[in-house]
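Same chain as my last thread, 561 residues:
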Amino acid sequence: MLASAQALAGAPQPPPSALQLSRALSISLTLATWLDARGFRDLDVTRRFLSPRLAELSSPHAMLDRDAAAERIARAVSAHERIAVFGDYDCDGITATAVLTELLRALDADVTPLVAERGDGGYGVSAAAVARIVATGATLVVTCDCGSSDHASLAELRRRGIDAVVVDHHLVPDEPLPAVAFLNPQRPGCGFPFKWLASCGLCLSVGAAVRARLGRTIDLTSVLDLVAIGTIADVVPLVGDNRALVRAGLARLGDAKRPGLRALFELAKLERGAALRADEVAFRIAPRLNAPGRLGSAAVTLALLLEKNPDRADQLAGDVEQKNAERRVLQDRMVAEALAEVREQRWDEAPAVVIGREGWLHGILGIVAGRLADDLGRPVAVIGFEGGVGRGSVRGPRGSRLYDALKAVSPVLSRFGGHQAAAGLEVTLERLAELREGFAAAVAAQEPDSAKAPEVPAVSLAPGDTLARVLGDFALLEPCGEGNPSPELELEGTLVRAREVRGGHLKLEVELGSGERVGAFGAGMGERTFEPGASVTLAGSLVRDRFRGGDAAEIRLTRVA
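reply #2:
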């Protein structure tokens, strides 16, 4: 009891504004203190943040070309025209394609879904993609998560008598697009107030517009599980409309009613019916769905999401899981090769890194670039060459402006696209050195991102709060991720036991001053040594301890001392 009294006496006192939030919203003082540190003071704003509702989504009527898109697609549905829905090969593109395909089929449309192929034309509406679209016999194509930069291909489709509706969220070139309608909140003049919808969210809006134009009733919530996956995977800010869509989608996703996702849950060892966190989707679902497209064709992932037969879904999920295992082996090898070359050449001393090699698999480049950007703390472009032509992925630390940097070196590039957080490029081998120098100079010339959100300090467990209550309250912050960080909880206590577990990880058990015990898991921290009885300070994310079950909590450590 003495230790408990000392802990309470030494605990920092929460500000009066946090006390007011706690009482008015019936939330723990721990959560209220963290919200207060993030600037939440207004009760109504905070209440809406903690309980986002689909009914409060931004009005879509100011979205440029939304009416034109709905009119052309509705006309195609009514006239029984064949509609090709063509998506990019990443998770957002695939889920966007599945969302629009399901909604249009529910409206009795004749739809042929397609996704881009990395090995045959690459990302976007390439020349190879044009041939595939023409072969379907469609008179209308709706692109999902691509098309904003594909002027020549869309013009060729128009010449062949195929209208195009482009649905995308990537940054927009200056040249007008040859399309019947172009939905992209990034377009100058688009009055839609929320600029960060992923393409899967935009396709949901298109489906709603077509439904209204046809005067039909279909269940739009049936595809929210797909919207949640695509939005989380594309690392767009989980605020505003995205927050409401993903919160509703996570609830539906946890039930895993879709046969393909139910089969994938079993392989990923995810508990069906349990509340899912956004990070579980980001690290356990999205990589699996992305894997087939990284190694060859994303068609199996699209088929898995659209499959209604459970037996067939099990087979497709097995194929996806096998591709995911292959992807892990390849990515680990490529990361090791890339890091060794960067350090040997001392490129890690530059403001940005550009590395390319013959034979690197294009589908793994984004993962490798992301890993290198994390390790090196600067923007990284990783390029795979084939026959002197390279395709690459660009990633950077939070706050990077990758699209702007590529635009500055665009004369060196054959093609580029994407957004500030993630981008892609094409370049010839003879211009690689020029790109390396120009990209580093462009990054160095950028002003610091003044709009970057300030870091939120860790919050301590408030006196009187139990871990179980705080765990339940922290669930109100989901979905956490880009633009909405998960809270870091700091705890002080006495070490009961410590051990290294398989994989070089650390497991701790700590007794807090209140007498409550908590487990802790530190990835890659297995070499750390601690003596039982020592005072320790833990900091990390508070998550449900699925091994112990019930309302038991565990700290996923970011630091321990």
